Amino acid sequence: MENTSQSSKLRWYNIALLAFTVVWGFTNVVNNFANQGLTVVFSWILIMFLYFIPYTLMVGQLGSAFQNSGAGVSSWINELLGSKWAYLAAWTYWVVHVPYLAQKPQIIMISLSWLFRGNGTFVNDTKPIVVQLLSLVLFLGFVWLATKGLNALKKLGNIAGILLLIMSFLFIILGISAPFILHTHVATPNMGSLHDYVPKFSFQYLTTLSMLIFAVGGCEKISPYVNKTHNASREFPKGMLVLAIIVALSAILGSIGMGIVINAHHIPNDLMSNGAYEAFQILGRYYHVGDLFMWIFAITNTLGSATALAVSIDAPLRMLLDEADERFIPKVLLKKNKHGVFINGYKMVTVLVSILIILPALGIKGMSNLYNWLLNLNSICMPMRYLWVFLAYIMLVKYMDKYKSDYVFVKSKPVGYAFGIWTFVFTAFACIMGMVPKANMAAFATSSWWFQIAMNVITPIILIALGLILPAIARRTNKIND
């Protein structure tokens, strides 16, 4: 019996692959290449060593110290700082998904445009308000679907996730080998020049950091698997280190592959929205298979995005409400329908996402600009949840003698504090800098630029402020005394 249970435990390679599917995707390569061109190769190396590796190893220690905490980050914060802070952590984790949900319908429509029309012109040629109204209809359809159960869709999503990973590696292998095997033209001239890979650490460069952090975040999602890992003190951190290596190789080689098929000196404005499809379309022509690679990517991205949309409507909300403390959450949000769905919670999601789908279309001109803006807003909001991971680690270092763990990232308290404070401050700095629209969005004088920066500042503030208001509503409606 003991051997059976040991054989069912996860090994380091299971942890690495599981975390990789959670953290990484080919679009991370495309989006950051669109921001930085070939200089992103150097940026990936810096971000891996200075940020991602410490991040993953901190998660390893937190997961090891709180092996029986099923709710992840909010459980860690509850243990270390108390229930009020745990509520704010859970709220942040949920609310940062609002911009994410607002963009997924766009991604699905772009995928379908490439699948059925062989190009991304539908989104580019259609007025932003029309696209966003269609996005709203699509989102409302998925809200309805999420209320009916997600089992079949989850299975399709798992298959799509595996296929997307395969496509990512396929792009790297075929893209980098094409000039050597097929003697194809390299789109970016002088790719052998080291000068093209070293970024200028200007203000403009600093505004792109949030997208890099957005790309490598999220490994705390696999922390519940620490206590399911064989010899966790050794194999879990080993798996996380392997994860960092795989992500680094995927990012660096994928960016070089992008430079081979797309000219890094003349990056089109719609590369974030259409670049992945264009890259696979070019590869298909190189290898004489037509649009096959693009079709496969479009199908898998449609399924993957559809699943992510439906699951992300439900799962983060459940994390917020399943074990809700009635001192902080109004009882009205805890009402469930016959399918066990938090129906009023769904209504709250629907209102917030609907506003974020429609409102920007009134002030941002051009669908590519709107897509790029919403993606950038995601890169500002999503990393806000990582701040709680680093705060939890700082507090764990403070109480290291009380909370023992099989795996310890660093044994020295001053060094531990330094890593925790560095990652916290760097994340906050990147989010703030990310609020500035990128240079390719236009000059300071345009109304669209000012509208974007206003939305970038106001949206995170409002989303977090709502979390501060709910406890006051809960005290009044739940009739709880202070």
UniProtKB/TrEMBL annotation:
<keyword id="KW-1133">Transmembrane helix</keyword>
<feature type="transmembrane region" description="Helical">
    <location>
        <begin position="42"/>
        <end position="64"/>
    </location>
</feature>
<keyword id="KW-0472">Membrane</keyword>
<protein>
    <submittedName>
        <fullName>Transporter</fullName>
    </submittedName>
</protein>
<feature type="transmembrane region" description="Helical">
    <location>
        <begin position="449"/>
        <end position="474"/>
    </location>
</feature>
<feature type="transmembrane region" description="Helical">
    <location>
        <begin position="415"/>
        <end position="437"/>
    </location>
</feature>
<feature type="transmembrane region" description="Helical">
    <location>
        <begin position="345"/>
        <end position="364"/>
    </location>
</feature>
<dbReference type="GO" id="GO:0022857">
    <property type="term" value="F:transmembrane transporter activity"/>
</dbReference>
<feature type="transmembrane region" description="Helical">
    <location>
        <begin position="159"/>
        <end position="182"/>
    </location>
</feature>
<feature type="transmembrane region" description="Helical">
    <location>
        <begin position="129"/>
        <end position="147"/>
    </location>
</feature>
<feature type="transmembrane region" description="Helical">
    <location>
        <begin position="202"/>
        <end position="219"/>
    </location>
</feature>
<feature type="transmembrane region" description="Helical">
    <location>
        <begin position="292"/>
        <end position="311"/>
    </location>
</feature>
<dbReference type="InterPro" id="IPR002293">
    <property type="entry name" value="AA/rel_permease1"/>
</dbReference>
<keyword id="KW-0812">Transmembrane</keyword>
<feature type="transmembrane region" description="Helical">
    <location>
        <begin position="370"/>
        <end position="394"/>
    </location>
</feature>
<feature type="transmembrane region" description="Helical">
    <location>
        <begin position="240"/>
        <end position="262"/>
    </location>
</feature>
<dbReference type="GO" id="GO:0005886">
    <property type="term" value="C:plasma membrane"/>
</dbReference>
<dbReference type="InterPro" id="IPR050367">
    <property type="entry name" value="APC_superfamily"/>
</dbReference>
<feature type="transmembrane region" description="Helical">
    <location>
        <begin position="12"/>
        <end position="30"/>
    </location>
</feature>
<dbReference type="Pfam" id="PF13520">
    <property type="entry name" value="AA_permease_2"/>
</dbReference>
<keyword id="KW-1003">Cell membrane</keyword>
<keyword id="KW-0813">Transport</keyword>
